[in-house]
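User: Hello, can you help with two protein structures?

Assistant: Certainly.
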Amino acid sequence: MSFTYAKLRGRIIEKFGSQGAFAEALGVHQNTVCRKLNGKNAFTREDMLIWAHLLGIDQADIGNYFFE
């Protein structure tokens, strides 16, 4: 099963201006963010919680961003 992360990508741009700036805030390489958003690497529960925190996404709304 593959997911579409358009809403998540939009939130990243809204909050950080670019995926590169978001990756820097996460403390990871931009390729790590790109691989997750392109479905090459899976999100862990911990990833989702960290990303949601940085992006200001309520835990109740995580599914709307990570499981579409």
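That covers the first. Now for the second protein you mentioned:
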Amino acid sequence: MENHKGDRVESEDKFKLDYEQTCQQIRAFTDIRFKLLAFVPTLTGAAVALLSRVPDQWTVLAVGSLGLFVTLGIVFYEMRNTVLYDAAIHRAKWLEVSLDLPILTYGEQKGGLFNE
């Protein structure tokens, strides 16, 4: 009987650790999005300012092509990031139910940041 109770406590500790790691991963995905949101316009503004003085059209074309490929890379990265972010949110919701977190708002489901 005690072994069963000890297994339940150990399982709950694993869920808590998993929930903590999942929340850290969600914060990391969000942080990456905001960094990209700040980085891309800044880099674009700097490129426009520098290239407006360059008379050689081939240089402008080359830098523009590079910008296109970098933008496409960022879009594909963001698409993958969104899939992983959604999976992490889904996992956090499941872990909140498994941890039996209290309900703080009105509703039928278990509580927790991602379920409410």
